[in-house]
Specification:
426 residues, alpha/beta, 9-stranded mixed β-sheet, 7-stranded mixed β-sheet, 10 helices
Length: 426
């Protein structure tokens, strides 16, 4: 029997790990992407932290106040630059429906289950040839500079009735510095922190480049770069091919791992997933003195930034900016926030004159969990999109679950997808 031919649209970390899971099952896989190489979109220069300890839904009762402050320019981690965007209003109204305590608990539980499952899979994936040492599985920290904020977080953690985050321990200032001595170099006293044994760190772009090279050693896996999808050919209740640059690419099944491009791409098929592009910024600095920088990745919960060190680089990531679909501009005031943080906390331990900056759009659903499953009106069209800021964290699990569903296997997890009327979800 001939192995099925699956076309995976999108060569970011989501599409690559979906292709990996399908290839392991013997599928013939073609990965197509509009860009010139793998991981040129949201996977290119993101934080690089597999943040299982941070896998919780953004939509929560407290998010409503955060949005109001963001509208007034008074929320340091949130910027709303294009309030007139109709897509933002449509997405935002659905987001507000998910801000109840019950919805927040349910959505966060989904994210936790998918994140923990994904992280365990990564322990095997990064042992493949060419992928060794692309990641460190040593845990991660969550830092607090404000005593009241730290107390609120630890109280909420202790009150979690379902022990949603059992791999997290609470550290006071002295225990935090004992865990990561390089934090002593940061100015001011830290109120405390959390340590998640489930977190990992690694350059997502480097991993994706290595994964693409690994997949290409399989004669049944093919890549087509620089091929934008113009439309779909349909026959009955199936997609028969995609159209690209005047040509058609036929396959037996199709996976949409298309991130923020998904709503525009699927509109001609009669559905438009609620995925909004939330822009984030990152800066990367060459390291001069490794001994003065933390080995463990951390999220500064007070400053709302993510910090990671891999090989000879420091990566700092920040902000959630609602700027619309096509805005990838780098606003000077946003970059200054990154520069100021690095100067204040790391000084001349890094080469401040040689920093490089990047911005990318995180594909975000209103509820938080991604869309995973089969499109109801098509027997052979599947979606794996909408992972927000947790794409690196949830990619392996999402790809494995979708591949299992495509092969009619019993999935390791159920009920981890966001709900939608057009989706037969996992």
């Amino acid at each position: 029997m001939t192995a099925p031919h699956v076309l995976v649209i999108g060569a970011g970390v989501i599409g690559l790990l979906n292709a990996y899971a399908l290839a392991r099952r013997g599928a013939r896989v073609t990965v197509v992407d509009a860009r010139s190489a793998a991981a040129e979109g949201c996977s290119h220069a993101n934080a690089g932290v597999i943040a299982v300890g941070h896998a919780k839904a953004w939509a929560a009762p407290a998010a409503i106040g955060s949005i109001w402050r963001g509208l007034g320019g008074r929320e340091p981690g949130l910027c709303i630059s294009k309030l007139s965007d109709p897509a933002l209003w449509r997405w935002g109204l659905h987001f507000l429906t998910q801000c109840t305590p019950a919805a927040h608990r349910a959505n966060s539980a989904k994210l936790q289950r998918l994140a923990r499952y994904s992280r365990e899979l990564m322990r095997g994936i990064d042992a493949e040839p060419g992928l060794q040492e692309t990641m460190r599985h040593e845990g991660g920290l969550y830092l607090f500079r404000d005593e009241a904020q730290f107390a609120d977080h630890t109280k909420a953690l202790g009150a979690a009735a379902d022990s949603a985050q059992p791999q997290i321990s609470v550290l006071d200032n002295s225990a935090l510095l004992a865990r990561e001595p390089a934090l002593r170099n940061m100015p001011g006293k830290l109120a405390g922190g959390l340590f998640s044994t489930a977190d990992s760190v690694g350059d997502c772009y480097g991993f994706c480049t290595a994964m693409a090279a690994y997949l290409q050693t399989n004669p049944d896996v093919n890549f087509l770069f620089g091929r934008a999808i113009d439309g779909f050919d349909r026959s009955g209740g199936r997609v028969s091919a995609v159209r690209s640059d005047g040509a058609t690419i036929a396959a037996d099944a199709f996976v949409l791992a298309t991130g923020t491009q998904t709503p525009q791409l699927t509109r001609s098929l009669g559905f438009s997933p609620l995925i909004y592009p939330v822009k984030g910024y990152s800066g990367t600095w060459p390291i001069r003195d490794p001994a003065r920088l933390p080995r463990l990745p951390f999220i500064d919960e007070s400053a709302l930034l993510s910090v990671a060190v891999y090989d000879t680089r420091l990566r700092v990531t920040a902000l959630a900016e609602f700027a619309g679909q096509d805005d990838l501009s780098m606003r000077p005031e946003r970059l200054d926030l990154l520069r100021d943080y690095v100067a204040a906390n790391f000084g001349d331990a890094v080469d401040t004159a040689s920093a490089t900056f990047w911005t990318g759009q995180r594909p975000t659903t209103p509820a938080g969990p991604p869309f995973l499953g089969r499109i109801k009106r098509f027997d052979n069209l599947w979606i794996n999109a909408g992972h927000g800021q947790l794409g690196w964290t949830m990619a392996a699990g999402s790809g494995e679950l979708l591949a299992a569903a495509m092969y009619d296997e019993e999935p390791a997890l159920r009920a981890v997808s966001s709900a939608a009327g057009w989706l037969d979800r996992i």
